[in-house]
Structure formats: structure tokens, C-alpha cells
Amino acid sequence: MTKDRNIGVAIDFSSGSKMALEWAIDNLVDKEDTLYLIHVKPSEGNESRSSIWSSSGSPLVPLSELRDPDLVKKYGLKFDPEVLGMVDTISRQKEVSSPLF
């Protein structure tokens, strides 16, 4: 199996997407892979942020910065301790690089 792969998992923080993340961690992610969480967020009428991200894409937020409540709020991300715990654990156990996209 090829090392240093990029693996993306779409997540909206629903129970189904958390199960998909857990499945990917258990069955796909290997040592030294990079895991990208692709944050899927329903439209909330915030056109200014949507307009900015439509041309540049959403920012990559490193795992180490997801613990900062101001940063989470700034980017309109949902803080979810369960998801953060799963990603934090896999990053330590399998030396996986895990930014949020």
C-alpha cells in the first residue's frame, strides 16, 4: 500500500458523518497519511463568507489550532469534542497529519 496518501472525509458533524469518519480511520488511514476533514456546512444565509470562500476555497485549519475557540468562531466552524478526539487520537497513534478543510 502506498504511504503518504491524502484521504478526505466529508463531515457535517451529524451522527452519520461521525460514523463515516470512524470507518475511514479504522479501515483506510495508515501511518503517515494526511487526513482532511471536508467540512460540509448548510447555507445559513451568510453570503459574505460564502462569497469569499467560493473563489479561494475554505481555509485549511491545522489540528493544533482547532482548540482555539476564537479561531473556531472566526471561521464559523462547529466545535465538536467527539470529532476532535477521534482526529487527535489518530494523529498520535498513526502519526497522521490532520488539518480541517
UniProtKB/TrEMBL annotation:
Pfam families: Usp. Residues 5-63 form the UspA domain. Gene3D superfamilies: HUPs. SUPFAM superfamilies: Adenine nucleotide alpha hydrolases-like. It comes from the Eukaryota. InterPro entries: Rossmann-like_a/b/a_fold, UspA. This is UspA domain-containing protein.
